[in-house]
Design brief:
Strand content: 5-15%
Radius of gyration: 17 Å
Largest sheet: 3 strands, antiparallel
Number of strands: 5
Number of helices: 10
Distance between the termini: 9 Å
Helix content: 25-40%
Order of helices and strands: HHEEEEHHEHHHHHH
Low-confidence stretches: 1-5
Length: about 240
Amino acid sequence: MSIERDREPIDTTLDMRDDASGRDPDQHSPTLRRYHKLLWSKPLPGGALFDLDDRTPGSYLHHKSDLGEFSLSSDSAIHTFTRWSRMATIMAQIPREDIEAFRREAYTIGGMIVFPANKVDGKPTINGARGMNRRISDRIDLTLECIRRHYAGETSPLGEVLDRYSGFFDLFDDFAGYVDFFLLQDLLTEDRNAVKFLMEFDDFTTPAVPSDLDSYLAYRDRTMEFLTARNRRIAELYG
C-alpha cells in the first residue's frame, strides 16, 4: 500500500538519464533529486524527522536541526562495468540490447542512494572512496558490508572514510536501522544477519570485478534481482 497519497508518486521504471541532458543524472536530473527528497525525508529510527531541503545554496540535499547538519549527494549505487576498457572482451560477447537493459535498470531509482557530500579534512567522501578502492569497485553489496562492519566496530576497506562520517551513520542507530531506512533489505540474507553478496566473497580477498563472461552474467543477474526487489519496495510505498 502506498503512503501519503497526496505526495508525488515515484515512477520506479523511469531511467534517470532521461532528464539529465546527457550529463551525470546524480548531479543533473531534477527528477532524481526530487525522488531522493521524497524518499529520505522521513522519521529516523529514533523518531526524529530527517527532513531534507533542496534549496540550500551549494548543497544537493541538506538537513539542519538538533540532529546536526548534513549535506548529501546522490550516488549511482550499481556498477554495471559495461564501459570499463578491461571488460571490453566480456561486453563483446553480450548483445547490445542486453547491455543497455542492464544500464537502464541500474539508472532507475532502485539503483540510487545518497551519502554525505561534504569533505572532511580534504579527504575523499564515501562516494569517492568506494569508487577508488579496488576491493570495493563501486559495488553496493561490498559497500554495505563495510557499513555493517562499521556498526559492528570491525575493520573494512572503507573503515577510515566511514569513521569520518560516523555522525551520519549514528542517525540510524544501528545497521538494521540503516538498512531499513534506505530500503536495502533485499541485500541481506533471510535472517538479516549478513550481506547477500552479488559475487563470490571471501573477506575482501576475492576480486571485486568479474573476470569472465560467466561471473559477469551471474553478477548482472543477481544485481538485477536486487534492483527489481528494491524498486518493488519503493513502488509499494510511494507508487
